[in-house]
Amino acid sequence: MRRKVSLILLALAVFFAALSPLLRWYAFPRVAKVPADQYQDMVLEAKDATLLDYGTMTAKKVPKVTVVQTLKGNVEASEKIERTAGRDVVVWDSLSYVQGPDGEMVSKLPERYIFDAHTQEPVHATGESVDGEPVTREGIEFKWPFLTEKRDYEYFDAQTRTSAPIHYEGTRDFRGVDVYYFEQTIPWTKVEFPKILPVEGVTPDSIAKSGTTRWYTTVRRFWVEPVTGAPVYGEEIHREELRGGTLLGDRDKVTAFSGHVKMREDYIDYTVDLVKSNRTVVLLMTTYLPWGFLILGAGLLTLSLYLEARSRRPRDPARADAVEPDPVSA
User: Fold this and answer.
1) Are 80 and 51 in contact (CB under 8 A)?
2) Which stretches within the chain are classed as H helix?
3) Does residue 279 sit in helix, strand or coil?
4) Are 37 and 73 in contact (CB under 8 A)?
5) How far apart (Å, rounded) are the C-alpha atoms in residues 261 and 47?
6) Positive or negative, the Cα torsion across 53, 54, 57, 59?
């Protein structure tokens, strides 16, 4: 009986020992993915900012500029792309909406971001765009991969429509969460005017005819929780200028926007709580269950060997004085 039990325990030990690496290296990369129907919004603020008054074409100090960013998963579009891409795809329709202290629109920048649900690598398909113009992204945007590494990544900048390195600058503690800090600097670059401008009758074409150009630079910072790859906090030191042309009169340039854009406090708390919850789910598949199964397998193997040893009994020695039986007389 003990030997049968030991064989059963041995089989279970082998099963759990084999399940441990399979869960971590086979199941997790296929199960962990960004949901196609995800929706999230975020509010950022730049206090004591500088903003262009398009009516007078002069830069003015304002108490606050608000940036509302929304990401909405487009399930119908992702399913359509998946049929030809042969992999799980997420389509995010995003909008960055900037408004002044009076609540009026300053600018808005729509995007369609298409990426692999598991790896977060960009997927190039019809519809990939910024402000209605087709783009071909390289690198990541908005989210880092699951199990983010301590290295630089290529990060897509929507204003310039190009990708540039975002540098890993070390590990930090952010409100009780261990995070990787990344920073990217975009130097002064000539960029397109938004298709929709805050002044009625003023269009990108009319500004282009005046010879005035738009320039942009930013320092982008993210605090990323490495297990989920989700930023728990982000900010930008953002500057825009209009340069040259008849629109500015005798001036060489004028500030269109300048401010230190930071995530609003209530959204920080919400994001940190959400990331902590998702982190536990990812750790369950990458650490807790694989190590738990491995330890369980080792324990079952030890118990199996113990029972096997107990089941083995030394045989009785042969009796040395055994007497041959007398032959039967005929």
Assistant:
1) no
2) 2-22, 28-31, 75-85, 204-210, 265-283, 289-311
3) helix
4) yes
5) 8
6) positive
Q: Report the pLDDT value the prediction gives residue 330, as an integer from 0 to 100.
A: 47
Dihedral, 43, 47, 49, 55 alpha carbons, nearest 10: 70
- Which tens digits make up the pLDDT trace of 164-220? 999 999 999 999 999 999 999 999 999 999 988 887 777 888 888 889 999 999 999
Q: Which two tokens stand for residue 144?
A: 């880092």
Could you say which residues of the chain have pLDDT below 70? 1-2, 313-330
Q: What sign has the CA pseudo-torsion 19, 21, 26, 30?
A: positive
The DSSP 8-state label assigned to residue 24 in this structure reads I
Closest CA to 61 of 25, 91, 101: 101
Region for 170 from its dihedrals, namely left if φ exceeds 0, alpha if ψ lies in -120 to 50, beta otherwise: left
CA distance 69 to 97: 6
Per-residue pLDDT, 320: 47
